[in-house]
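Protocol step 4 of 5: obtain the predicted structure for the target chain.
Materials: sequence only (see below). No template structures provided, no constraints applied. The aim of this step is simply to have a reference model before the mutagenesis design in step 5. Sequence pasted as it appears in the construct record:
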Amino acid sequence: MSLYIDLSEFLTNPITTGIQRITGEMCKYLPPDALTPVRLGSEGYLAFTPELISAIAEHFRQGSHAGTAEINRLSDFKKGMNVKVSEADRVLVPEVFGNSHRLGFFRAIPPRDLERYQFIVFDMLPLTHPQYFCSTWAETLGIYEYFKLLRRASWCGFISEDTRQAYYLRTKRSNVCGGVILPLGCDSLGPRPARPTLNRPLAFSVIGTVEPRKNHQLILEAFEPLLRKIEGLTLSFVGRMGWVSSELAQKVHALAADKNSGFRFFSAPGDGAVRKCIEESRATVYVSAAEGYGLPPVESLWIGTPVIASNMVPSLKTLGLTGIHIVEPLNVTNLRRAILAFLNDDYANQKTEETMQLNMPTWQSFTEAVLRWCAQR
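Step 4 output (structure tokens):
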């Protein structure tokens, strides 16, 4: 029996952000020879040496152009060996994809043979919350064809209970849920602090792509009157500009250009800059309307910074209110009240100290859970 990991999407674009991060973090913690890396070629899978896993891991430890070049060298199609997946073999598919060739490959696999493939499902949001996605994006990516593939799949793991329930309700039309939950790691930005940092400046950060479901417009509405009145109060958006209205994009850039606005926008931060911004904040704000998981808030808690959040973030649902301030119902008035609560040193310090009590998953624990799931087959 052989265990393979399908890295086709990552090897086409070996970046260290977005969904690619899941692949990279797994590679950092995979035991030697645990999984054989493969990618899809014109005639089927090609297998590569374990050095490719090591190169990806190193790229995520200290990313560089040289790291990308090494990954490209080791995964060159000419270096691959043809693989035929036998009945005893298993293939882990930890990626979302919409490539027509790859989708066609899976469509051609008979149902019985598809049982050899194990898919990690991240979210069903384009199906459950289509209003937050650009239709041309979904059509171009082929995301709906990908969901059709997941509907045929027999073996799926899910990053949250919310995603598992959405999968079974929307694709299987069933209230009976199977599969396993594989919580993502919180530690990609580095180690936990030894002690909490108290009495922080009046700084707040919003981590992640600026897009409709993240409610950046609502956050600005809550903060703007306070930024003009409270000395030292600042708000930072940390993440690239996504598919938002031109009015919101213009407003973000205009506020960032005004040095007296108290607002900052960092559109292309590295991991170090993101961590620094979180560490210097009284709280991060994550009031998303829909999520499959929600990494930024748990990464914030891991670093020791409390979170102001909506009740729609799956990654926070098992943590209660420890280090977390839930805004419910979510509106401008209630969000502003949460912000004002954190301006009080005693409350902010209490929530900061609470973050040190949390027991949270790491990327190593995620990788170990994935390997146990593969071994159960």
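Step 4 remarks: The first helix runs from residue 8 to 12. The chain has a mean pLDDT of 94.
Proceed to step 5.
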